[in-house]
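Reminder to self: tokens first, then the designed residues, so the page reads top to bottom the way the pipeline ran.
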């Protein structure tokens, strides 16, 4: 780049006419280019003599031959210059003594407080400073100049930043300027510690011709350029245009940069870094002229845009203050701000279409060509025009620039010009439109308003062509529609946000300033009906994703849906939304989910109560099925997937959200006598819900909040697809270990077909090894790849119930089933239930459907009885049962919600005037639903408990085998599986536990349930209520259950309930008849032993109860026969002296009763039997207590 600098008219008057060091000469000095120095003219060479003379006379550090030759050339160059002799004489002075005198003078002035009293350097002057300088020898000249310079430097140090201009005869006389400059340069070079060059530069700003001296000084010490500039900038003012000192400093630095143009941009960077002298930064940019005039964006536009639109708020505030302060002063041609505005205006006019720039400012008038009034903006100017627009927006919106009439006119001409159909052209139109909205004051006359309306009309007409020709998805047409919709709905704050985001800057726009634009938009250009009709015709965005930025058709449709414009004007939007949902990909666009929500709301909620039919149409079932036809998962039949996973997930979200909102709106819909159609169960069965959610789980980053929204909807509407054990199982199926196993699977491994799997099942048990190989291979496949084998695996399950099938095959099948359950649970459950039916049902070809199983979940337990003793298959059955019980709850809740509000509404109409009548059926329906669900759950629990009971064959086998082997049986494993499920059910709903125990179950199962169901301890809460029941059977069951609970959970709460039970038993003893007393106490007396074992403090209460029972029974016996056996006396003795009973028993801790013959017990009176049982209980308590000790 060739850089040319031109001296601006903004120069100091006092240095006008003086010759400055040229950039060529400074570069030669920097590089010590002797050949270039020799080419300089005598006046140019004169300015550099101090440095050249020192260079020739002083001993050099460089002893090379080349420098020796260069030094000879310098000496030859200096030999013909007369002024060299005076400089040589200056260098002959004793500078050490001079420095000592200068320092003494500084100390003297410091003591005198800076007053101009005695001077050590200069004795009393008889003439003026100039005459003294003229008549003095070199030493005295040095002393005069040094004294004057130190005086100025001291005054600068004491000024506290306040600028002053020192009148100095020495620095103002044009006759002696060269000699003074020579002395100054020699002094600074020989006394650098006394005269730091930065301090000297600062002092020179306070004298006339200071910029000339400064440039000369730096030219003779070229290495100090950056140091001097940084020092001047650091000590400079924050706003240089505000003061004389700031302007002098700016001009001095500007002259330095003209002397060394290669460092100008670095000096400008220092200005920005320090946030000082903003005018200098602009001036340096104005001086910069690149050699390529057609550059896309000019340096001035780039620089000012970077300051105002950058991320540094400190820089932005600093420069904005420069703009604001500059406007307050009277317009001056010497002001840097007005020079900047002038240059920007020239650049703006230069790129306008020639017929649009009807007025060239101050450069002559142009002939207006009316016929070409709307010629287009040239393509090479579009980017520059966009940059200029953004810059003027920043200047006006951030820096508070008030445009002149000339600037406003030319800006409007540029904004309403018509660019070519390119992406840059689309961007330019969008920026122009937003600038019109941000600064509507640019349109002030009726002619300008008409021009704007014509341009907006052109935008509407050409939008589609621009989008197709430019090849962009986000065109300005969507922005027009969006703004029109915001104006119609009076969302002015949204328009302001849109404008700020498009322009890329935060601008304070008053909503009141948009009133004129609102009138134009809503009444002249975009009526609401035009907006809706146009929006439907806008093409959808292909492959819509979050990667496509800008304002898209989806933004417009969303706003129109929210304002209910489509339903108000009866415009169907269903097809457009469906097409857009089908044209989506990852990462998901943030506007899609709000669009679906707004669409669903417009389907269910009318735009107004006066017109309840004004709603949008829902997506049809066939259109939904088309999306899932080739999908994998529950409804898959193979084939190629046509729609993206994003489309399928969005359609799934639409269906689930639609159904949920439909249920939530039933009351309002009933009042309006509207009943929108719900999607059929057949459709839902064909959608692979679980598979899609599993896929979404791996795409959470790309799907945004869609995955969590789907999980929320599933938990509400499909709780059976959100089982905790399913999530845990998925971790096992999709975890690291299974992934590594699949990676180890060779690609050329044997592939088994479904027919081979079917044949292996049919030839069981002889084909067990082959079937095992096939199943082991299938375990290496992913759940998605297992889907084709699902039907073959489930259809042959009944064959695995044969006795000779190896256990490993059953366990492998269970593992495969659990894997398939992660991707296609609902269809898998239906197939499994049908496959496990008893053989009689299979012969009748009775096939259950998904709906059948949700209506009656107990169908799952009506399977082949052999399943109850096959733990791997029983695990599957229990999993399905748990799922269908949850599904049934959700199904009945939805069914009740769907029909209740409409039936109640009709009953309200029919029972008008009857108070309280409409609410009765509603309460009854809810109670009936809850009763049905409770009956289902309790029936399932009772059936499962019954399964836990051993059959007669198992009882015989258990009696003949060892106890350890009985614990390893299939029955024991099934009991454990059932207890795990019951534990989960009791935790999920404690009312089930209460209901089941109020119903009761065989006493033989109590040891199993209490030990195997950890959550059964909650029964302690309702046992008192169970004891209060009038039926003896329930009271007996409560006491038996409590005895096991006390043994299992010896807690304070158990102790209190046990005391209550003993009290109840004592009360019942007094009120029961003889027959009921026998039937009540015979089964519960052994429970007292457990109470005493768990809680020894209950011994006295239990002993007292037993004595009471014995007394009552003995008295009844005494009325009929003689008390042969003195029972009461023995019981009293046992209570008072249990140790004595041990002693009489021979010291054995195991007490025994007298042997009774069968005839004595069997034929004895019930009271006699009860007496003997009481005595046996007493002895067991004593025995267990002493055994425990």
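Designed residues (1189 positions):
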């Amino acid at each position: 780049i060739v850089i040319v600098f031109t001296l601006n008219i903004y120069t100091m008057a006092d240095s006008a006419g003086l010759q400055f060091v040229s950039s060529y000469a400074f570069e030669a000095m920097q590089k010590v280019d002797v050949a270039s120095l020799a080419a300089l003219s005598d006046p140019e060479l004169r300015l550099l003599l101090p440095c050249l003379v020192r260079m020739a006379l002083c001993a050099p550090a460089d002893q090379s031959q080349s420098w020796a030759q260069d030094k000879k050339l310098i000496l030859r160059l200096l030999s013909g210059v007369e002024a060299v002799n005076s400089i040589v004489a200056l260098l002959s002075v004793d500078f050490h003594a001079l420095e000592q005198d200068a320092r003494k003078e500084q100390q003297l002035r410091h003591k005198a407080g800076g007053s101009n009293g005695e001077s050590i350097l200069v004795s009393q002057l008889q003439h003026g400073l100039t005459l003294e300088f003229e008549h003095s020898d070199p030493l005295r000249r040095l002393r005069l100049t040094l004294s004057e310079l130190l005086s100025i430097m001291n005054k600068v140090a004491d000024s506290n930043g306040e600028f002053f201009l020192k009148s100095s005869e020495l620095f103002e006389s044009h006759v002696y300027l060269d000699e003074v400059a020579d002395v100054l340069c020699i002094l600074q070079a020989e006394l650098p510690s006394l005269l730091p060059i930065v301090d000297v530069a600062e002092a020179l700003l306070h004298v006339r011709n200071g910029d000339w001296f400064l440039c000369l000084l730096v030219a003779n010490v070229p290495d100090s350029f950056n140091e001097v500039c940084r020092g001047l900038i650091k000590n400079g003012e924050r706003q240089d245009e505000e003061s004389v000192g700031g302007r002098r400093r700016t001009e001095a630095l500007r002259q330095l940069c003209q002397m060394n143009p290669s460092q100008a941009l670095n000096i400008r960077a220092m200005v920005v870094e320090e946030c000082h002298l903003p005018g200098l930064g602009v001036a340096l940019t104005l001086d910069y002229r690149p050699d390529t005039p057609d550059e896309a964006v000019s340096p001035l536009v780039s620089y000012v845009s970077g300051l105002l639109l950058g991320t540094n708020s400190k820089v932005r505030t600093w420069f904005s203050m420069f703009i604001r302060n500059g406007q307050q002063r009277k317009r001056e041609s010497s002001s840097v701000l007005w020079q900047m505005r002038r240059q920007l205006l020239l650049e703006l006019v230069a790129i306008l279409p020639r017929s649009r720039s009807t007025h060239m400012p101050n450069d002559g008038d142009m002939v207006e060509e009316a016929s070409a009034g709307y010629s287009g903006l040239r393509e090479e100017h579009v980017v520059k025009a966009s940059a200029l627009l953004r810059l003027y927006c920043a200047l006006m919106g951030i820096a508070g620039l008030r445009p002149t009439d000339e600037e406003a006119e030319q800006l409007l001409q540029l904004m309403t010009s018509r660019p070519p159909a390119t992406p840059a052209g689309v961007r330019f139109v969008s920026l122009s439109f937003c600038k019109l909205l941000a600064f509507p004051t640019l349109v002030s006359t009726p002619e300008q308003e008409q021009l704007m309306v014509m341009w907006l009309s052109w935008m509407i007409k050409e939008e589609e062509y621009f989008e197709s020709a430019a090849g962009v998805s986000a065109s300005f047409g969507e922005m027009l529609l969006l703004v029109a919709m915001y104006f119609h709905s009076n969302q002015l704050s949204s328009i302001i946000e849109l404008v700020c985001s498009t322009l890329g800057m935060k601008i304070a726009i008053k909503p009141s300033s948009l009133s004129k634009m609102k009138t134009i938009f809503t009444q002249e250009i975009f009526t609401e009906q035009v907006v809706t009709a146009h929006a439907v015709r806008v093409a959808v965005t292909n492959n819509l994703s979050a990667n496509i930025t800008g304002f898209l058709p989806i933004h417009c449709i969303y706003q129109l849906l929210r304002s209910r414009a489509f339903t108000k004007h009866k415009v169907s939007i269903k097809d457009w939304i469906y097409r857009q949902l089908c044209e989506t990909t990852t990462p998901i666009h943030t506007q899609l989910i709000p669009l679906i929500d707004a669409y669903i709301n417009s389907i269910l909620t009318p735009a107004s109560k006066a017109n309840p039919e004004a709603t949008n149409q829902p997506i049809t079932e066939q259109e939904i099925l088309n999306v899932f036809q080739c999908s994998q998962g529950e409804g898959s039949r193979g084939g190629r997937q046509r729609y993206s996973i994003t489309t399928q997930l969005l359609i799934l979200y639409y269906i689930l959200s639609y159904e949920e909102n439909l249920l939530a709106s039933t009351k309002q819909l009933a009042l309006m006598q509207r009943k929108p159609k719900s999607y059929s169960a057949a459709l839902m069965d064909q959608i692979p819900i679980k598979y899609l959610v599993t896929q979404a789980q791996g795409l959470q980053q790309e799907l945004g909040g869609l995955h969590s929204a789907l999980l929320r909807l599933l938990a509400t509407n499909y709780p059976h697809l959100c089982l905790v054990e399913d999530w845990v199982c998925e971790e096992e199926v999709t975890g690291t270990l299974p992934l590594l196993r699949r990676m180890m699977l060779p690609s050329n491994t044997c592939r088994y077909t479904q027919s081979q799997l079917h044949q292996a099942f049919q030839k069981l048990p002889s084909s067990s090894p082959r079937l095992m190989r096939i199943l082991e291979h299938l375990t290496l496949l992913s759940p998605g790849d297992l889907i084709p084998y699902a039907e073959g695996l489930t259809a042959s399950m009944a064959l695995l119930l044969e006795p000779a099938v190896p256990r490993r095959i059953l366990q492998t099948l269970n593992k495969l089933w659990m894997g398939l359950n992660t991707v296609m649970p609902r269809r898998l459950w239906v197939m499994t239930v049908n496959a496990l039916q008893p053989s009689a049902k299979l012969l009748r070809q009775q096939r259950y459907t998904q709906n059948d199983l949700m209506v009656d979940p107990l169908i799952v337990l009506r399977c082949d009885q052999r399943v109850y003793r096959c733990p791997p298959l029983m695990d599957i059955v229990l999993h399905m049962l748990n799922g269908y019980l949850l599904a049934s709850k959700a199904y009945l809740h939805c069914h009740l919600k769907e029909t209740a509000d409409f039936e109640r509404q009709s009953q309200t109409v029919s029972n008008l005037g009857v108070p309280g009548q409409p609410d009765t059926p509603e309460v009854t329906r809810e109670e009936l639903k809850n009763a049905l669900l409770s009956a289902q759950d309790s029936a399932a629990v009772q059936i499962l408990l019954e399964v836990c009971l051993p059959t007669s064959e198992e009882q015989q086998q258990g009696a003949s085998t060892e106890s350890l082997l009985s614990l390893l049986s299939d029955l024991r494993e099934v009991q454990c599986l059932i207890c795990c499920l019951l534990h989960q059910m009791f935790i999920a709903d404690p009312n089930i536990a209460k209901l089941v125990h109020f119903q009761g179950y065989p006493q033989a199962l109590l040891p199993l349930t209490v030990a195997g169901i950890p959550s059964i301890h909650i029964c302690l809460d309702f046992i008192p209520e169970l004891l209060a029941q009038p039926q003896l059977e329930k009271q007996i069951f409560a006491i038996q259950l409590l005895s096991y609970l006390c043994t299992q959970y010896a807690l304070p709460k158990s102790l209190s309930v046990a005391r209550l039970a003993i009290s109840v038993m004592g009360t019942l003893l007094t009120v029961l008849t003889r027959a009921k007393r026998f039937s009540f106490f015979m089964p519960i007396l052994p429970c007292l032993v457990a109470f005493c074992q768990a809680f020894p403090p209950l011994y006295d209460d239990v002993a007292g109860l037993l004595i009471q029972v014995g007394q009552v029974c003995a008295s009844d016996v005494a009325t009929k026969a003689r008390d042969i056996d003195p029972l009461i006396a023995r019981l009293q003795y046992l209570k008072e002296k249990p140790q004595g009973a041990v002693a009489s028993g021979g010291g054995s801790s195991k007490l025994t009763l007298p042997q009774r013959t069968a005839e004595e017990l069997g034929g004895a009176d019930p009271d006699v039997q009860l007496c003997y049982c009481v005595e046996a209980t007493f002895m067991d308590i004593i025995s267990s207590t002493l055994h425990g000790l």
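The chain has a mean pLDDT of 79.
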